[in-house]
Amino acid sequence: MADAAAIFSKTNPVLTSRPRRWLPSPRRIALVVVAAALVAVLFIPLTKNTYLELFGETLFVGMALLLAFQGAGATNPKKVPRWVAQVVGVAVAAVLAPLFVQLFTAGGSFERFIGSHSHVRGYVLVTLVAMVIGLLVALGSLYREREAEAESQALQIALLRETLERQATDARLQLLTAQIQPHFLLNTLANVQELVESGSPRAVPLFRSLIAYLRAAMPHLQQGDATLADEEQLVRAYLELMQMRMPDRLAFSVEIDPALRTMRFPPMALLTLVENAIHHGVDPHVDASRVEVRAGPGEGGVLRIAVIDTGVGMSEKASEGTGLTNLRARMRAFFGETARLELSEHSPRGLRAELVIPQPA
After folding, report:
1. Residue 242 and residue 247: Cα distance in Å, rounded?
2. Which domain holds residue 306?
3. Are residues 139 and 214 in the same domain?
4. Which residue has the higher pLDDT, 226 or 135?
């Protein structure tokens, strides 16, 4: 769960909430300038001031509203929601900013401001306009911020779900691999034990082959990411080991398209098919048999990896074992639902087990 926890951690550069800025963005400042210019035009018929005076007053009030909104949004109040602090901040600025402007034009005298009908009228007019426009813009901005936060949370949830699904798939692959590995190793050791107990002269070279095989196989038992070249190496070593056990009854060939050797492949998946061919096809057959391993592109944009044996064939197999059942699940988990395992009779005798997987892009 470490990857999932990192999604919401403070160190995640993508999904961590961006810090609230005290200073407004250039885009918002530009919008305030344009709005102040338009409002100043509307005030011309209502006052005797020049356009530049009106523009200066409305721009000052607009910037005060913007700073109040931005500053309240940058705070982190504990007792009230942030949007409430922003609305209250805009309302307070809409009252105080026009008052400061009128006091400035009245020479700083509050008595002169109160006694001037034009100053009071201008204050009330600007305050009402600032209150209405400021609150409407603030609410609209808050609505857009809520939508942006909802989209960000949706992306976080989607990424978390994808991460958890990937972790679940990896865990399932590890479980299925763990089920297959003991099965394979125990069968191999049982075959070696037969030769040792029978006193066969091939016991010593067989042990050497087994040790060489285990040296190649053990690193792949723990890793979760293997290639088809790794599988080819294991399959060759395994077939050589089995050929030493029954030299008169087993021949084999391995033909892997060189272009496919670097392809990611589930560890020991191909080996499962080869082992199945040996123990359920070649071993029960009294005559000489052959195992062929082929891998290459097929029709319809798929890759076909086949293990063909000339053993007893499908008719003497009552049902699939744990190895093939797990292999089907591993292939779907690794390559997707379109990956499949096909079993068919091989002419004149034997079994063809073929993995059909989508061709990687």
Report:
1. 8
2. 200-358
3. no
4. 226
Using only C-alpha atoms, what is the Rg of the chain? Answer: 39
Annotate 213-239 with three-state secondary structure.
Answer: HHHHHHHHHHCCCEEHHHHHHHHHHHH
The Cα 283–Cα 278 span in angstroms is: 6
Same domain, 205 and 306: yes
Specify the pTM. 0.48
What does the pLDDT read at residue 356? 94
Are 147 and 263 in the same domain?
Answer: no
Asked whether residue 158 falls in the same domain as residue 9, the answer is: yes
What is the C-alpha to C-alpha distance for residues 315 and 282, in angstroms, rounded to an integer?
A: 14
Give me the mean pLDDT over the 102-106 stretch: 77
**Residue 354 above 70 pLDDT?**
yes
CB 8 within 8 A of CB 156: yes
- What CATH number did the domain enclosing 351 receive? 3.30.565.10
Contact 35, 133 (CB under 8 A): yes
Q: What's the distance, CA 53 to chain centroid? A: 57
What is the predicted pLDDT for the residue at 20? 54
How distant, in Å, are the alpha carbons of 39, 42, 120, 289 from that of 52?
12, 13, 20, 101
Backbone angles phi, psi at 248, to 5 degrees: -85, -10
Residue in the block written with tokens 């509307």: 42
Q: Are residues 116 and 214 in the same domain?
A: no
3-class secondary-structure state, position 13: coil
149 plus 217 within the same structural domain? no
Interval 331-346 mean pLDDT: 89
pLDDT greater at residue 317 or residue 203: 203
Coil, helix or strand at residue 310: coil
Residue 308 has pLDDT above 90, yes or no: yes
> Helices 322-335 and 269-277 sit at what angle, rounded to 10 degrees?
150
Q: Are residues 236 and 339 in the same domain?
A: yes
Residue with tokens 């290639």: 227
